[in-house]
């Protein structure tokens, strides 16, 4: 029942844990191996989707409620990113003048009417922070509802930018691949320039964005967010992380800013964030910082990473209070019992705990799952029983009549989404095995007519398993691999499908 480190595990996955614990391999190397052996890091795509850093505190979905123009996304299923990109592109084009574009102006040419040069070089040592948190929050408040206050924002940003040649300096400094992209967003944040682009020295070794925005060192993963527009499933700038870049770079406090932006940032989090491993995924750095803030170490961090289902951005309010409490208590339990369990056992425990939590939320009368009084031996026994249950078919030979609710939908990106009902025990078993959850045990509910189970596939690949109450045509639960929650795009599509069912 105790630790198994005296014997090297044969499974490649646990060999990596053994390697981290016993060979003192660097955390950066271990994370590199972790990413190589995964199917790609999908999580940043839907956990860090925030176009507007105020989305959490305003309780609206970024890209849907941030601009009035965005409301038509419900009709045409246009993506939030495309719509917001349209609004920001309009703003950028108006900034550089309605009858001119960046492509056809000459360097040094002045805008007409002339800008009022509001930017001055910093002299001496400014007050750390300089109220950067309040200023950023006010800036993004001004960007709300661009359809109504476009002209006001254009005038404000034109004043901050000054000479139009500043835009060309940024473009040329960044290079042809990302120059236009970065210049647009740098202009949008021009009120926070500390220095003029004209004073940047190419051979100084300091990147143009650090020259514009920072006084202090910033984690590399935040710097990289400016140019991760290609190959990482997004075509837009993640403003949340850019806000962090500016706040840290100008001596501000993430904890203070969290009260204005609706983030969940506690004391000492920023300290641990600055010492996080170098990764292109800010969510992982946040996870590292929060686990260390709770008293964990690198081993605890990698155990959570390999557990996969607990890999979240702990600074967002996208998770409900109940899940946030469950997540924190689970991590604390793993930290307290670090020496009593092996790496493989920690993964079994995580899978079992998430299963128990999701089932408790489904059956409200059972009460919430908690860790109080749970001993290691008992938890390990329950975890192994759950793992064994997943490997055994249940009701494999049974079949039942479907509801006739299958549906196929092609979105504007030509991605094909299929809602396919599972109508026999073998299909449920295969779904549960692939998705790594307990849907195979739901055969009895389907036979009795209590539940209807559907698999949502994207381009033929299963992404979400859905349970529907066939009597009331209501959604009971929808979970992805290892009981992950649907992302924004999937949630929207499921809602559209449920509405379609109710109209039949």
Question: Can you put this structure into words, describing what you see?
Answer:
The chain is of the alpha+beta class. It has 3 domains: 46-261, no CATH class; 319-376, no CATH class; 407-503, no CATH class. It contains 23 helices and 5 strands. A hairpin with a 4-residue loop joins β4 (461-469) and β5. α9 crosses α10, α16 crosses α17 and α19 (343-362) packs across α20. The chain is globular. This is PcfJ domain-containing protein. It comes from Costertonia aggregata. InterPro entries: PcfJ.
Distance between the termini: 54 Å
What is the arithmetic mean of pLDDT?
76
As for the number of domains, it is 3
Please tell me what the overall shape is.
Answer: globular
Number of strands: 5
Low-confidence parts = 1-18, 38-50, 59-82, 98-127
**How large, in whole angstroms, is the Cα Rg?**
25 Å
Instruction: Tell me the structural class.
Output: alpha+beta
Strand content: 5-15%
Outline the biggest β-sheet.
5 strands, antiparallel
How is the largest sheet built, in terms of strand order?
Answer: 1-2-3-4-5
Tally of alpha and pi helices: 23
Order of SSEs: HHHHHHHHHHHHHHHHHHHHEEHHEEEH
**Helix share bin:** 40-55%
InterPro entries: PcfJ
Protein name: PcfJ domain-containing protein
Pfam families: PcfJ
């Amino acid at each position: 029942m105790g630790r198994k480190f005296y014997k090297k595990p044969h499974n490649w996955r646990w060999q990596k844990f053994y390697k981290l614990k016993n060979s003192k391999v660097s955390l950066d190397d271990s994370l590199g191996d972790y990413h190589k052996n995964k199917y790609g890091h999908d999580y940043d795509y839907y956990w860090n989707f925030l176009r507007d850093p105020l989305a959490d505190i305003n309780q609206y979905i970024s890209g849907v409620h941030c601009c009035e123009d965005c409301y038509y996304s419900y009709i045409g299923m246009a993506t939030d990113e495309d719509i917001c990109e349209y609004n920001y592109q309009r703003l950028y084009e108006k900034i550089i003048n309605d009858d001119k574009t960046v492509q056809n102006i000459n360097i040094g040419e002045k805008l007409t009417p002339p800008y009022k040069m509001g930017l001055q070089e910093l002299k001496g040592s400014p007050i750390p922070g300089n109220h950067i948190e309040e200023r950023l929050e006010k800036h993004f408040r001004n960007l709300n509802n661009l359809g109504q206050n476009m002209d006001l924002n254009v005038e404000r940003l034109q004043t901050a930018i000054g000479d139009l040649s500043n835009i060309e300096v940024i473009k040329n400094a960044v290079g042809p691949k990302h120059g236009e992209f970065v210049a647009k967003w740098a202009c949008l944040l021009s009120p926070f320039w500390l220095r003029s682009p004209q004073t940047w020295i190419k051979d100084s070794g300091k990147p143009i964005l650090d020259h514009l925005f920072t006084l202090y060192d910033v984690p590399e993963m935040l710097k990289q967010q400016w140019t991760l527009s290609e190959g990482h499933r997004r075509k837009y700038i993640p403003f949340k992380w850019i806000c962090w870049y500016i706040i840290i770079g100008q001596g501000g406090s993430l904890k203070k800013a969290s009260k204005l932006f609706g983030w969940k940032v506690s004391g000492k989090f920023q300290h641990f964030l600055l010492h996080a491993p170098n990764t292109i995924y800010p969510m992982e750095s946040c996870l590292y910082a929060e686990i260390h803030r709770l008293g964990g170490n690198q081993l605890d961090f990698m155990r959570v990473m390999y557990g996969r289902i607990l890999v979240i951005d702990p600074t967002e309010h996208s998770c409900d209070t109940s899940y946030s409490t469950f997540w924190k208590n689970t991590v604390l339990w793993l930290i307290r019992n670090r020496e009593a369990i092996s790496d493989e056992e920690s993964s079994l425990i995580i899978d079992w705990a998430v299963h128990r939590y999701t089932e408790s939320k489904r059956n409200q009368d059972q009460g919430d799952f908690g860790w109080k009084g749970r001993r290691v031996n008992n938890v390990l026994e329950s975890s192994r029983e759950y793992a064994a249950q997943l490997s055994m078919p249940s009701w494999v030979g049974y079949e039942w009549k479907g509801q006739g609710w299958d549906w196929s939908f092609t979105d504007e990106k030509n991605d094909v989404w299929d809602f396919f009902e599972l109508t026999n025990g073998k299909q449920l078993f295969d779904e549960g095995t692939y998705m790594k959850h307990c849907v195979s045990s739901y055969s009895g509910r389907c036979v009795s007519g209590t539940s209807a189970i559907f698999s949502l596939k994207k381009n033929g690949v299963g992404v979400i398993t859905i349970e529907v109450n066939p009597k009331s045509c209501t959604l009971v639960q929808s979970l992805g691999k290892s009981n992950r929650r649907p992302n924004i795009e999937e949630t929207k599509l499921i809602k559209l499908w449920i509405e379609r069912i109710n109209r039949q």
